[in-house]
Amino acid sequence: MDIIEALATDAPVVGPDALCAEVYEIFSGETDLLAIAVVEDGKPLGLVNRHELTLRLADRFGRPLFEKKPITRLMDSTPLIVDGRMSIELLGQFILDERPAALTQGFIVTKNDLYAGIGTPLSMLQMSVVRAKMRSAELEQAKIAAETANRTKSMFLANMSHELRTPLNAIIGFTDFMRAETLGRIEPRQYAEYIEDVNESGKHLLNVINAILDMSKVEANRLVLQEDYVDIEDVARVVMRMLRETAMRRGINLHLDAPAGLPDIYADGQLMRQILVNLINNSIKFSGESKDIYIRMQITETGEFVLTVEDHGIGIAERDLAQVLEPFGQAEGHLARKAEGTGLGLPLCKALTEAHGGRLELHSIWGKGTRVDVILPASRIIDLKTSDRMQTLV
């Protein structure tokens, strides 16, 4: 922490018996001098400001009246006197709140109650500039260190994901082959259940690895959109077919509500599919006793495209809404903790939506359900006439 002692400038001092004319001559000889302290036995008695003394002596009757008088007649006998051990931050706040005049008149700095020097606005400004440069250098170093750490983390995750994916894909492939009983019936049947568990666990772990890698790409600004015209209604139907069996095992029905003639959107089709998979999977996990999940699409009056996934399941408590949108953040509660997951589903959807220039809005009431709106800007909606014209030009 910087202290005021660093602000003290070495300035001439005078005793209480010095004449006003003598002090005036000192100011005349040192044009950069703002103030002179009046000191006796090392202790400050007052402060003489250059401009105030000059004005008094420049007056028609001022010089003959004061030049032969002791400087104590024209000094400020109650100047701001500060201990050199005080922090500069505290001094700055005190001057702004209590003694703003010190910014033009200067102040006296002491050490062990003895005069140490004069503090001036210039010395405060110089110190501020030095501290700003140091702070800027520290922030630059911190930024470089953070970027290096982020790159190292991304490389580590990429390497680890490759190392983990290879055996996982083998496990999933072999268990898929065994589940199909291509070489004969699995006996005893309990082994078939074990194989099913291994297969599901492998797929779950692979999904976790993929989610972590995707999030690391987003955080490292390495996510590149492969944009094209996307029939978002068709994407939704494909995802619903993928997840229908999972939903049916839980007794859940998936419903799609899309207006006729819904235009295409200009987006990364694979990422939009991933957003839908994550959102619908989340709804399936937390639907509880609810039997229906609704996927809706609409164009708002402002021209934005809104993709909604809504359920009437366990919902999210208001205190947890912000937390579940943070990476690895999960809601509290018995039912929420029972569901598998890394806490990356919603944050990843949010990041992928924002990569498209959109926003994700989460609405939920504990015990009543959750609605997630993926909102893309109007610029992402393909006007059919414009699309035809673009194809003609191509």
Q: What attributes does this structure have?
A:
single chain, 394 residues, alpha/beta, CBS-domain, Heat Shock Protein 90, five-stranded mixed β-sheet, three-stranded mixed β-sheet, HATPase_C_sf, phosphorelay sensor kinase activity, ATP binding
Textual characterization of the structure:
The protein is of the alpha/beta class and 394 residues long. The protein has three domains: 4-119, CBS-domain (Roll); 145-219; 227-384, Histidine kinase-like ATPase, C-terminal domain (Heat Shock Protein 90). 48% of the residues lie in helices and 18% in strands. The protein has twelve helices and 13 strands. Strands 8-10-11-13-12 form a five-stranded mixed sheet. Strands 1-2-3 form a three-stranded mixed sheet. α7 (189-219) packs across α11. The longest helix has 59 residues, at 121-179. It is elongated. The model is unreliable at 333-339 and 385-394 (pLDDT under 50).
List the helices and strands and how they pair.
Elements (H helix, E strand, L loop, with lengths): L12 E2 L5 H10 L5 E6 L2 E7 H9 L3 H5 L14 E3 L4 H10 L4 H4 L1 E5 L2 E6 L1 H59 L9 H31 L7 E4 L1 H18 L3 E5 L7 E4 H17 L6 E8 L5 E7 L22 H5 L6 H11 L3 E7 L3 E8 L7 H10 L1
Parallel strand pairs: 1-2, 4-5, 8-10
Antiparallel strand pairs: 2-3, 5-6, 7-9, 10-11, 11-13, 12-13
Helix pairs in contact: 1-2, 6-7, 7-11, 8-9, 9-11
Helix content: 40-55%
Q: What characteristic shape results from the CA principal axes? A: elongated
- At CATH level 3, the topology of the largest domain is Heat Shock Protein 90
Radius of gyration: 37 Å
Unreliable sequence segments: 333-339, 385-394
What is the mean pLDDT?
83
Specify the CATH architecture of the largest domain. Answer: 2-Layer Sandwich
Superfamily (CATH H level) name of the largest domain: Histidine kinase-like ATPase, C-terminal domain
How many domain units? 3
| Oligomeric state of the chains present here | single chain
List the strand order in the largest sheet. Answer: 8-10-11-13-12
SS class: alpha/beta
Order of helices and strands: EHEEHHEHHEEHHEHEEHEEHHEEH
Cα end-to-end separation: 65 Å
Beta-strand proportion: 15-25%
Query: How many distinct beta strands?
Result: 13
Catalytic activity: ATP + protein L-histidine = ADP + protein N-phospho-L-histidine
Enzyme class: transferase
Subcellular location: Membrane
EC number: 2.7.13.3
